[in-house]
Design brief:
CBS-domain, 14 helices, binds pyridoxal-5'-phosphate
Amino acid sequence: MTTDKQSKEKADILKAVGAEVIVCPTNVLPEDPRSYYSVAARLAKEIPNSCHMNQYDNLANRQAHYESTGPEIWQQTDGKVTHLVCTAGTGGTITGTAMYLKEKNPNIKIWAIDVYGSLLTKYFRTGEIDMNEVKPYISEGFGEDFVPKNYDMRFIDHFEQVTDRDGAVMARKLAKEEGLFCGYSAGSCLQGLLQLKAQLKKDDLVVCILHDHGSRYVGKIYNDQWMMERGFLEVKTIRDMVSARGAKKLISVEPTHTVADCVELMKKYDIEQIPIMKEGEPIGAISQQGLFKKVFDDPVLKNATVTQVMEPAFPVAPFDTAAEKLRLYITKENGAVMAKDEAGNYHIITKYDVIAALGN
Ligand SMILES: Cc1ncc(COP(=O)(O)O)c(C=O)c1O
């Protein structure tokens, strides 16, 4: 049983190991018969020998963390932990771990990380279950539209909310800069901690729980397109670079042009490379570097056609390729890449264009 907001990878993994996966709508109230809470409870009654684990209200959830996660953190930090920071969904992880840690040292601060669109933070602060707080959110694995029984707010010192965007961006940063390929909530957890960093002292020992790994989110937060569609990532693409330079026509030559024509164009437009186009498609290229060597060896070549001295055509990349990815196309041998827009026109992006785009 899952919801339509959970990543596809999660359902696919379950199917791969033989589960029947039932996907329920997210944006219905928990008591709605279509919600995954209601469907799970109903199926548990209907299917013989089935069991409804009910991670929300079954206190075995927090008990497991009291018996495992709490002692693990206490032992591994030699009892020096000063703060526990953890995203909160069912409340099992944070409450169970906090119950153990506070028993050992009541001064340990327990910070819960929530998402905007969840009612938990307001409930923590005011005791009010305010359905006006509930909004659809994209973050996965934490935040709630009700208060599960696994919570015992007496063990939690602070609730901090994080936006969908900030959590996703932080997860990517964690992967890229720390080599920790973790899930969405892990990014949110770290983001929440950073929002609270002013409260920390130099010698504090902070433990952050990173609930799951990144492979379940490759189609989401680790996918540039997905991030861009939600406005989470300002990735410069070939499209951006082309539109930034205005409606400039591609300077190219036809197979019948001579080397001298080509040199003329290169001088006129101050460019280092020119694609050779035949019937609108690139068939080769001329670069200053390649040409210099060839004409130096054989000066008569000036009158030859460009096809006689051409180098391989520049690689063609999709129009929405991110600037960061262009180093896969632009190499020592070819200093440019081409891309076709929706109207079928080719554009050229040189290594200088990429340097300029990445530098901005
Ligand atoms: C990815 C992820 N992050 C965070 C949480 C929140 O943990 P808890 O439900 O124990 O509050 C969960 C819970 O399933 C999760 O799957």
